[in-house]
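ASSEMBLY PREDICTION REQUEST
Request ID: AP-0331
Submitted by: J.K., bench scientist
Number of chains: two
Total residues: 742
Priority: normal
Notes: Please return the full assembly, not individual chains.
Input sequences:
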Amino acid sequence: MTTTVDQGSVAAQKGEPNVLLKLWRNKETRSVIIQILTMAVLFAFFAYIINNAVLNLQALGKTFSFDFLNEPASYDINQTLIEYTSRDTHFRAMLVGILNTALVAVCGIILATILGFLFGVIRLSNNWIAAKLVYCFVEVTRNTPVLLQIFLIQGILVHTLPHPKQAASIGDAFFLSNRGMAIPRPIVEDGFMFTVIAFFVAIAGVIAFRRWARKIQEETGKIYPVLTISLGILVALPLIVFMISGSPLAFEVPELGRFNLRGGWTLIPEFLALWLALSLYTSAFISEIVRSGIMAINKGQWEAAGALGIKRSWTLRLVIIPQAMRVIIPPLASQYLNLTKNSSLAIAIGYMDIVATIGGITLMQTGKEMETMIIVLAIYLCFSLVISAFMNWYNKRIALVER
Amino acid sequence: MLKRASFAAAAIAAVSIASGAQAATLDDVKARGTLHCIVNTGLPGFSYTDASGRWSGFDADMCRSVAAAVLGDSEKVKYIPATGKTRFTLLNSKEGDVIFRNTTWTFVRDVDVKLTFIGTTYYDGQGFIIRKSKGVKSAKELDGATVCIQTGTTTELNLADYFRANNMKYEPVPIESNEEARKNYLADRCDVYTTDRSGLAATRATFDKPGDHTILPEVVSKEPLGPVVRHGDNQWEDVVRWTVFALMAAEELGVTAANADEMAKNPPNPNVARLLGAEGALGEMLGLDKDFALRAIKAQGNYAEIFNKNIGPDTPIGLERGLNASYKDGGLIYSPPFR
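STATUS: Completed
Returned structure:
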């Protein structure tokens, strides 16, 4: 009996370190152990950071609460897409900021994409001068800080454009001055609804027409000028309805007041500067992405299309670009994210985005650094996630379907 | 909440570090050997770098006085330029020890933002500057104007209130610093620039043709400007407060940079004797030595000397003493007694 017990305990004593060593030597369990340790360190790190913040706030006697969002903001904002006065709450000021960020991000993404594709294709064209000009533009824009470009464009707008009293005008309706671009404001009257309906009908018609045209092409090989006819329908139908219903649309044209152009809509120089600067900066990157996407397509594709007798312009549109898109989309998504985040530089020239409203003036007036910064971070995160989700969806849609 | 409870155990180390951060500012400054002073990024007359790269101005000199009182050397100052937006964060994150940046004392800043205002070194009010060629004589005529403002300041709120109260519209152009605001105003991006009237006078002095611009008569707010320290460090608060009061008391008692040493040796009256440390132990009570006020006064002179040198009538900025005269001359500058 006793001997067996001794043997057992000896085995246990021997076995214990062996088990740990075995676990460590085993590749799979080792990686699990490392992961657990990493998680623990990470957890402790965040625990320290959060606890430190809580303690420091307590030491300063500050409370953590979002109640300030319901207080009146008391400051004015120069560009508001929704109704806003200084009596509205900080929450509403935040909404104004979010919309301003969204506006410049969406406008920027659209313009940057158009310019980027254009530059990317030109760069590859056989026109030596055009290709070299784009090359110079891309290298200069990509390699200088975007903040300087924003300052530069704002400086040009504010310093070189004339005062409102000498504003450059087109037909006394559009005015360009150093206070921005004033354009007529459409005022919708009764009956305009019919034009809107006609527009949607036209869109439905265009979609039906395109399907039909494609069917005909597949069956007979006959090709209709789809683009021209589509545009014709889109313009003509709403226009005719608009005329018949008695042109129910008036325009408020900007007029010179004592200090400024009054009435109409004004695109303030800060918006124009930020929009142009972000678009140009990002378009330089996009043009390189587009160029790499096109160059990634095997030369054989061009030759095969040529052998089939497809026109060169069609080859690009129907053969090359659809394949290039698979290479282009993933890096394009990260450029969109960059543009959105770069829009936070707005504060430098006084464009009232989220950082300038809730993360700037609200922060200063209420002293709620922690809360406002959390809100700003959360909003940028939401913007980024929405863009990523959309681009992922689009990427899946155009991905190579393997049969 | 649940997570935070379990964090508590894991973060005992954090507790000790965070509580260690409560050390007294006075000890920190002495140990470091330099005073970290938060100032304006550039406002002529108040705090700006002059042609030789030296920080000058009313606020910058006050920093020197405090450094002289605490460290015995008025040049042991590290200036930390801040915008209206960043100044409080810089103070609360301990980047700076004190703010001398024409900061308006308000209820919310004092109580809710957890700052401690030392007192008022300059009584100011918000005004408007505009080109004479625009033909505006009163702020009441500014309906429809474009207005440049420094963002993150009290002027932003006063402006909104003033135009609302007078039922006028305006387009605000929010700008980060005085320098940027000046550029935009000169480029005529805005019709009017609004800030504290002292700031307007100081900015106008830097224009090519100051005479083409006028400061409108309306004063739309009260702006008591003064130094700020962190909430909850009473000793450091006292040090800064009584150094500033020493400069004011020196003017009241006729003590100047030139005659301070002589006055300390042969004090003409007990008040001067206590102020300059010839009698009593006021300095020791602060955690300094008895000569602290003497050093502060010798550094840049008394309140009147600092005022006149930087922003007074004989400078390009040309501000009258007005409300900022000593109470003996009918102003509001008044030091509590040194006893």
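REVIEWER COMMENTS: Chain A touches chain B through 48 residues (CB under 8 Å).
SIGN-OFF: pending second reviewer
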